[in-house]
Amino acid sequence: MIVVGELSLWIALLMAVWAATVSFAGGHGRRDELILSGERASYAATGFTMLASVGLWTALLSRDFSLSYVASQISANMPNVYVFAAFWSGQAGSMLFWALILSVFSAIAVWTNRDRNREMMPWVTGTLAIVLVFFLATIAFKANPFVRLDWLPVDGRGMNPQLQNPGMAIHPPTLYLGYVSTAVPFAFAIAALVTRRLDADWLASVRRWSLVSWFFLTIGITLGMWWAYVELGWGGYWAWDPVENASFLPWLTGTAFLHSIMIQEKRGMLRKWNVTLVVTTFLLSILGTFITRSGIIESVHSFAQSPIGGWFAAFIVASTAVTAYLVATRLKDLEAKAGLESMVSREAAFLYNNLLFVGIAFSVLWGTLFPILSEWVRGNKITVGPPFFNAVNIPLGLLLLLLTGIGPLIAWRKASLSNLRRQFLGPSAAGISVVVLLLVLGMRHTNALIAYGLAAFVGGTIVQEFWKGIGARRSLHGEGFVTALVRLVSRNRRRYGGYIVHAGIVFLFGAFAGMAFKRENDVSLAAGQSFETTDPFGARWRFVSQGVSTSLALNREITAVALEAWRDGSPMGLIKTEKRQYFDSQRQPTFEPSTEVGIKSSMRQDVYVVLAGVRGDDAELRITFNPLVVWVWWGAELMALGGLIVMWPQAERRRQAGYAAELKPAPDEFAGVA
Amino acid sequence: MKPRTKFLVGAGMVLATAGYLMASSISATGVYYLTPTELATKLSSDALFHGVGLKLGARVVPGSIRREAGGREYAFVVTDGAKSYPVIYRGIAPDTFTDGVDVVVEGRMGQDGTFHATTLLAKCASRYENAPEKYKDTPGYRGSAKQGA
User: Fold this and answer.
1) Rounded to two decimals, what is the model's pTM?
2) Structural domain containing residue A114
3) Residue A152 to residue B144, Cβ atoms within 8 A
4) Based on the structure, what is the number of domains in chain A?
């Protein structure tokens, strides 16, 4: 099966080359038999990529340590779940995983469009095949997971213990689903440019895929944050690390696109911009994959060390050049059909929204690549850290939060004074009251005050929208509260799903601002000794050490410390933190000891305890109070839920009716009812 | 003014602010990222380079790690093969910090020739891989010559 897998990899590559060649030829010469052949080859490439993947999984699960990839990723005594996940834990395997998802998405895109978009489809099939060729060729020539060692180890080197975590087993696949699904909108953008069919119909095909990719990126990024928080033990969930930034970049431009697409649908504006955003999102996904997998940014001088670096750079440059050429030769087809009529309008709010999203994306990209850029330009590698990203992104992010409240409620074309007063009077009052309340309670942190004020304002607009919508249904149809809520959301999924996503954003900003009040204590405790401190909310905490214990498990040795905690005199239970030394089947240690963080979560804050080390009888501990962390996870869940509501397929008839209704500019009077 | 012009003026202001924030925070917080050899060159050409905040990327010399009794202070030596520097670090060391790993230390070069680090990152985990070749000659790791199917 392993040999079959390796062979399949090469056949899949040939099939993808064929699919690209005949699809482009068929599209160019309008020859149906070539187009059909291209589509069949694309299905075949999918089949063989799947076979290659089955081959690698077989090698892993049969623990065939003659393969370098298997020997470097797992050890014989690891549980099967993580052996299965080892498919995507290393560079070569994760590249194959990318190709696997891409081939499946290509097949889905080709299949669902077998009777639709026929003029564009050869170019879509061909573009997706080209991307697949790139990945399969990079795997086959530069990062082949089927390469054998010239010696046979009795056991593999095991997986990094920090990766042996359920979150880490599902985080990469989710993120990859998000990354890879940006390839389909990219292919449609190229096809639309080539065939000059740049009207709304390509957008309809692209919008659903963009939502899918946004959904998976959102979940993938959050899982990454959660993993970093519970597993790495430095006490936070976001460090502006290059790898984190890499996943954030396509999310930013993808989110910008999901907003600007509405402007094109309703007003025919931003046509060039939308094509550019789709392509940029895809290129940032490729760049993200590359940054994550090559380690290019972290190392002092590693550009030449990465075997796949040149291939990725060439691919990104070539894609950019092709797109730039296509856009430049089709500027006339991309003319806007309407102009901006007023600064106080929904169009203007959305334009600023896009400007901010792209501005944030640019600053994150700049900061992430700055070490490389500075080395090229000035010969010295200069790095920027969290202070840089915070200085730029906190102000831009707060402005964006403000627009989250304004954008959905302000009128199209030109807002009247009565529209403004009706929509924003209540929410503004809510925002101001929260700021006053917090000032009275003693909060003096400027950015946090602004964040909570804006969060209350946006939250106010969302509550007001639901309130008005439910009220209208109740008086019009005589429905009960719950029925009215369910029907309101299910009949206007785009709109109310969007509000639910925005509610998630409000939670997130509240949680981010909370981290400004984090408190850290380094203590050294022997058994029976205690430590007392005050948390950010003013409560007194007392921690008593239960001492250090050691134990053995399947593939690890555990050193644990338990703390008994009290808040203001009432018992809060035990908090346990561990150091783990993993070993392989020969009892040889694999990797360095890893830390298991002890976390006691509540709505207010997490008490986060890390065992730094043991010296004699003393356990060295870092006890941190992280305010409002659970709101990050809840906010992300709300966002995912809202995303699901927006993209859930509706019955065809109703969708068309709903779409037509949305395209018709609603009279202002019914803006709250729709 | 036409709405389009107004928008462009607003957009220009937003971008200018963002650009200013980026430029000012790069000059305020950007730090050099150097190898020991590069640091030596800088130090010999510029006496004021002592005391400049920087990141030093190098490998921990095996056997050089000393942990001060009764404190969280680590002393060790880093090298890039050509140049070596002693480092002193106070704080919690990451799990991956051990003999022979690549580390990035951030801090200042003291007049005493010792690097005073405020953060310590061990880079072993950055690619989360463990090359089997490293253990090729470890007794017990070489199996039979049989090749798996």
Assistant:
1) 0.89
2) 1-158
3) yes
4) 4
